[in-house]
Amino acid sequence: MAEKGRKILVAVDEGDESAYALSWCLNNLISHHNSQDTLVLLFAKTPLQVYSAMDSTGYMYASSVITTIERYANDVADNVLEKASRLCKDLNTQIKVEPMTELGDPRDVICDVAHRLKVDFLVMGSHGYGAIKRAFLGSVSNHCAQKVKCPVLIVKKPTN
Fold first, then answer.
1. Which residues, including other chains, have CB under 8 Å from residue 14's CB and lie 6 or more apart?
2. How many other CB atoms sit within 10 Å of the CB of residue 123?
3. For 139, what's the count of Cα atoms within 13 Å in the CB-facing half-sphere?
4. What pLDDT score was predicted for residue 95?
5. What pLDDT is recorded for position 118?
6. CB 94 within 8 A of CB 33
7. Which residues contact 130 (CB under 8 A, 6 or more apart)?
């Protein structure tokens, strides 16, 4: 009987921590020979935080400014996913890679996609924030570890 491949969700962003988590996943979780696994590379794009057409000084935002900001956010997402896909192909030419971008808070997006795609595993990097910074910013990895139903691997990048 043919071996059924796993669907592994890897959350990626522009940070070194997620790139390290992806590399670790490719080197330690994926077979380098005839892998049936699928890696879903997820970039969670945070929505543009513009609540009105005016900023706090009373100036109106030009639609061209908003369009430029949105274009930049799309370019960041495309570049991160292209870099991550290239890394996958460089380390394992057999692996099936599915890049995707979702709009929303990364905590919610990662959990929703993990549930919707019924992934077998979630891999994500840890930014390694201290207790105070984590209290103010929250921890995406901690939130996801508590909410998703599949196993979660949080990879911490070595400090050396």
1. 76, 79, 80
2. 24
3. 20
4. 85
5. 96
6. yes
7. none
Distance CA 80, CA 43 (A): 8
Token code pair at residue 8:
């592994």
pLDDT at residue 1 in the model = 42
| Nearest-angstrom CA–CA distance, 20 and 159 | 12
Distance from C-alpha of 12 to C-alpha of 77, rounded to nearest angstrom:
9
d(CA 126, CA 145): 12
Q: Please tell me the predicted confidence (pLDDT) of residue 60.
A: 59
Secondary structure of the chain in HEC code, one letter for each residue: CCCCCCEEEEECCCCHHHHHHHHHHHHHCCCCCCCCCEEEEEEEECCCCCCCCECCCCCECCHHHHHHHHHHHHHHHHHHHHHHHHHHHHHCCCCEEEEEEEECCHHHHHHHHHHHHCCCEEEEEECCCCHHHHHHHCCHHHHHHHHCCCCEEEEECCCC
The residue written with tokens 């992934």 in the block is: 119
**Ordered mean pLDDT values, 10 residues apiece, the chain (160 residues):** 79 93 91 79 86 56 76 94 94 88 95 97 82 61 92 89
pTM: predicted TM-score of the whole model, two decimal places: 0.84
CA distance 1 to 22: 30
